Amino acid sequence: MARSRSISGSGVWKYLNPAYYLRRPRRLALLFFLFVSVSMVVWDRMNLAREHEVEVIKLTEEVLRLEQMLEELRGVGDGKTLMTHKDVPEDPVDIERRQKVKEAMIHAWSSYEKYAWGKDELQPRTKDGTDSFGGLGATMIDSLDTLYIMGLDEQFQKAREWVATSLDFDKDYDASMFETTIRVVGGLLSTYDLSGDKIFLEKAKDIADRLLPAWNTPTGIPYNIINLRSGSAHNPSWAAGGDSILADSGTEQLEFIALSQRTGDPKYQQKVEKVITELNKNFPADGLLPIYINPDNANPSYSTITFGAMGDSFYEYLLKVWVQGNKTSEVKLYREMWEKSMKGLLSLIKKSTPSSFTYIQEKNGNSYNDKMDELACFAPGMLALGASGYGPDEEKKFLTLAEELAWTCYNFYQSTPTKLAGENYYFSAGQDMSVGTSWNILRPETVESLFYLWRLTGNKTYQEWGWNIFQAFEKNSRIESGYVGLKDVNTGAKDNKMQSFFLAETLKYLYLLFSPSSVISLDEWVFNTEAHPLKIVARNNDQRKPTITLRQRRFGGEIKG
Ligand code: DMJ
């Protein structure tokens, strides 16, 4: 009993009593010494851990740099180097940033591979996939050429196997012919042009043949929805009066002309060119068409005129078919129509107050709407690409306009707390821009324009802007299982979708923004609206023989021009 009292009573508790130590200075000194030693050890460990973290980051960067050097050496082995065409050595900052973008692609792709393999799109937060395009492997096909261009050989081969063995278009599914064309036909044709592998051409032909009945209308202006198995076609029920949508009907020309060139079968080209000749019959002097067109008589309905949703890529393709056709007399009509539309675009240009941001209005009848979609931010790139076809004065004017619009689009990003752009913006007197619909779904249009402006002006500012946007995606949209959009760019609240165009377009344009201009040179390639590069081929009236000579190249690192 006496022993137990001494442990629970004065025996242990006395050591916690300060008076005990005041009476024993030696013990106090010992205790102080112990406290200082332990603190120093803890502090030392924490410092060491921090130093290790820094070391690991440095090593990761070093690994990326060495990988890059290895790829350059492989390039030398192939008789190519990563020098630009002007033989200027690459800026090391570009190399580092390109690697960072490549790493982002690896993260996006491996998340898709892990959680949504073969599905149309990854839902990163629920870690599963969804078939938003009828189960056509949209992300797989949209990513093929990006993987190829970035030199991600293993990933590319695995995706190629899936295309060869599991991709099946025989589906009782009402597909959007626009989305199917730009993502699937475009993605497959681009990968065929890059790799020379015939499987991609066969698959492109298979899906294009299933889409062809959509053009069987009285005018040849297509219905926008088609059943992939039965070929029965119609327009979406929500479109005004059963009309066809302008962008959906005028954004198949590049892909179907390319398919005719590569197969030697003219039927694809004939269908899509008929649409343009039909629209040209009553093409207005300002080249601006409303977003709804009647497929029975080709009359435009009273509806919005816009360079944003549902109008945008019609104008883009007028220019790009001219580029694809080598800018020859055979494609003169496309350039003429495009130049008319650019007159119309000029009539929609306005400046905000107080900061003088240049923007493109929308129009309905005689009334103008001070609203601009982020989707319309493809326009600076288009203007820069088309400027060189004008004489010197017009060229300068359109290039200046492109640069001004790019500044506005960049500010769509810079003006929000997350530094990511909302879906559209309103302009009001004295207040410049304000976000309308506030989501961001990882769209590419602004970085697409920055890519064109960088390539065509050489101004490094556009690289800086692109890098800032990339960092905002990394900060807000990257999660452990992929990349997500934002429900609201003001709060940063996340959605649950990794859009396939993030891998097809956003990351590809960012990667090319930091690559030499000989990589997918704009003199040799034309990008479809989903960023799938198609090789520019001499146009030949005799479509019986393919006129394309493909570069068959073994895989050996990143593509180098
Ligand atoms: C893509 O599918 C294409 O760029 C299309 O032209 C517009 N919408 C998305 C990206 O925002």
TrEMBL record:
Catalytic activity: N(4)-(alpha-D-Man-(1->2)-alpha-D-Man-(1->2)-alpha-D-Man-(1->3)-[alpha-D-Man-(1->2)-alpha-D-Man-(1->3)-[alpha-D-Man-(1->2)-alpha-D-Man-(1->6)]-alpha-D-Man-(1->6)]-beta-D-Man-(1->4)-beta-D-GlcNAc-(1->4)-beta-D-GlcNAc)-L-asparaginyl-[protein] (N-glucan mannose isomer 9A1,2,3B1,2,3) + 4 H2O = N(4)-(alpha-D-Man-(1->3)-[alpha-D-Man-(1->3)-[alpha-D-Man-(1->6)]-alpha-D-Man-(1->6)]-beta-D-Man-(1->4)-beta-D-GlcNAc-(1->4)-beta-D-GlcNAc)-L-asparaginyl-[protein] (N-glucan mannose isomer 5A1,2) + 4 beta-D-mannose; N(4)-(alpha-D-Man-(1->2)-alpha-D-Man-(1->2)-alpha-D-Man-(1->3)-[alpha-D-Man-(1->3)-[alpha-D-Man-(1->2)-alpha-D-Man-(1->6)]-alpha-D-Man-(1->6)]-beta-D-Man-(1->4)-beta-D-GlcNAc-(1->4)-beta-D-GlcNAc)-L-asparaginyl-[protein] (N-glucan mannose isomer 8A1,2,3B1,3) + 3 H2O = N(4)-(alpha-D-Man-(1->3)-[alpha-D-Man-(1->3)-[alpha-D-Man-(1->6)]-alpha-D-Man-(1->6)]-beta-D-Man-(1->4)-beta-D-GlcNAc-(1->4)-beta-D-GlcNAc)-L-asparaginyl-[protein] (N-glucan mannose isomer 5A1,2) + 3 beta-D-mannose
Gene3D superfamilies for this protein: 1.50.10.10
GO molecular function, one term: calcium ion binding
Disulfide bonding pattern of the chain: C377-C409
SUPFAM superfamilies in UniProt: Seven-hairpin glycosidases (SSF48225)
EC number: 3.2.1.-
Class of this enzyme: hydrolase
Cofactor: Mn(2+); Ca(2+); Mg(2+)
Annotated binding of Ca(2+), by residue: T529
Pathway: Protein modification; protein glycosylation
InterPro entries per record: 6hp_glycosidase-like_sf, Glyco_hydro_47, Glycosyl_Hydrolase_47, Seven-hairpin_glycosidases
Function: Class I alpha-mannosidase essential for early N-glycan processing. Progressively trims alpha-1,2-linked mannose residues. Produces Man(5)GlcNAc(2) from Man(8)GlcNAc(2), but only Man(6)GlcNAc(2) from Man(9)GlcNAc(2). Has difficulty acting on the terminal mannose of the b-branch. Involved in root development and cell wall biosynthesis.
UniProt family annotation: Belongs to the glycosyl hydrolase 47 family.
Protein name: alpha-1,2-Mannosidase
Source organism phylogeny: Eukaryota, Viridiplantae, Streptophyta, Embryophyta, Tracheophyta
